[in-house]
């Protein structure tokens, strides 16, 4: 596979269903090692575009071109799972493709839940469930990960941890990532390009470029006028298990320094003592309200989002 060729390229593609264009004239590329994030209001065509990229949906106009031999890992927005049936994490990973015990263990280790191999899905927290889905997607060592709202059912601090995990997976496996986010205001800093959809590509660029664009402001109205908090983190210090902090120069102290990475933006702090980015006044709300239950977010009984992976 050529390093400089796109892993997935969508060229002027459109999907026509039930007498209307769900999306039209969509063009985007996902390169190796790149994180591309799709944002847009409900019904803007984000999932439709992700399914185009996956070739789950065939374009009625334009084309979708994959790199030869492309392997894709997919985390769908909804899952058709019978929650009355016991289903373990390791069984989820092998539902549609076979993996050795070692591959399963590696995937679970990579997403930080090695201890949950035998756990039942219905007992997992929202964050653990999303990690199990990610483990499933990376077990086949994909060239590209397509993640449709991978932080759903997770609270604000958990969201940040999942975004960090996605960035880490990109860094360690050098895969490309196409990420769907419903969150207009919290886009991880690792995102290389944001594509803002509204049935068509409304605008695109770096998170900061898109936040500053008039098209984005027009699409999201007064919400867009509020400050756009890009989740940023700098690994200039590490919290040790005993509570001390190790700094980039190797020294350790009992607390972080004022100027340490994370220590910008909001005056609020997370449980690790880090300041969290301001989510446009929504942070407190997000932190205090209960996240939707994982089960309600798993599309129970809706029959959508069959687990799908493909290899060409
Ligand atoms: N098979 C279909 N037939 C007709 N309309 C459809 C079909 N699939 C999706 N739609 C419609 O297409 C539009 C785009 O849907 P899509 O799920 O891609 O949006 P989205 O941006 O992912 O939305 P959300 O943020 O709510 O998940 C919606 O209005 C949806 O109702």
UniProtKB/TrEMBL annotation:
Pfam families: ABC_tran. GO terms for molecular function: ATP binding; ATP hydrolysis activity. The keyword ATP-binding applies. SMART domains: AAA. Residues 8-223 form the ABC transporter domain. One of its GO terms (biological process) is response to zinc ion. It comes from the Bacteria. Keywords: ATP-binding, Cell membrane, Ion transport, Membrane, Nucleotide-binding, Translocase, Transport, Zinc, Zinc transport. PROSITE patterns: ABC_TRANSPORTER_1, ABC_TRANSPORTER_2. Residues 266-277 have a biased composition (Low complexity). InterPro entries: AAA+_ATPase, ABC_transporter-like_ATP-bd, ABC_transporter-like_CS, Metal_Ion_Import_ABC, P-loop_NTPase. Residues 236-312 are annotated as: Disordered. Residues 236-249, 297-312 have a biased composition (Basic and acidic residues). The keyword Hydrolase does not apply. Belongs to the ABC transporter superfamily. This is Zinc transport system ATP-binding protein. It comes from Phyllobacterium leguminum.
């Amino acid at each position: 596979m050529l390093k400089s060729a796109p892993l997935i390229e969508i060229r002027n593609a459109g999907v026509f269903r039930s007498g209307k264009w769900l999306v039209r004239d969509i063009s985007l590329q996902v390169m190796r090692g790149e994180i591309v994030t799709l944002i847009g209001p409900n019904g803007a065509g984000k999932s439709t575009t992700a399914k185009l990229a996956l070739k789950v949906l065939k374009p009625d106009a334009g084309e979708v071109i994959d790199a030869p031999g492309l392997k894709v890992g997919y985390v769908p927005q909804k899952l058709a799972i019978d929650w009355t049936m016991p289903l373990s994490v390791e069984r989820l990973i092998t539902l549609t493709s076979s993996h050795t015990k070692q591959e399963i263990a590696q995937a679970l280790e990579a997403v930080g839940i090695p201890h949950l191999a035998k756990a039942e899905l219905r007992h997992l927290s929202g964050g653990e469930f999303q990690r199990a889905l990610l483990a499933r997607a990376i077990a086949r060592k994909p060239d590209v990960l397509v993640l449709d709202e991978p932080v759903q059912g997770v609270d604000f601090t958990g969201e940040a941890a999942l975004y960090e995990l996605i960035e880490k997976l990109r860094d360690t496996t050098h895969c490309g990532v196409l990420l769907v986010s419903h969150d207009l205001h919290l886009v991880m800093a690792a995102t290389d390009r944001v594509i803002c959809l509204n049935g068509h590509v409304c605008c695109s660029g770096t998170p900061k470029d898109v936040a500053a664009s008039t098209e984005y402001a027009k699409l999201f109205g007064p919400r867009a006028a509020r400050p756009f908090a890009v989740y940023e983190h700098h690994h200039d210090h590490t919290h040790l298990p005993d509570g001390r902090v190790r700094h980039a120069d190797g020294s350790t102290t009992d607390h972080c320094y004022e100027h340490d990475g994370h220590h910008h933006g909001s005056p609020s702090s997370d449980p690790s003592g880090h300041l969290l980015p301001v989510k446009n006044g929504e942070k407190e709300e997000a932190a205090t309200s209960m996240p939707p239950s994982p089960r309600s977010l798993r599309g129970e009984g809706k029959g959508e989002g069959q687990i799908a992976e493909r290899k060409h």
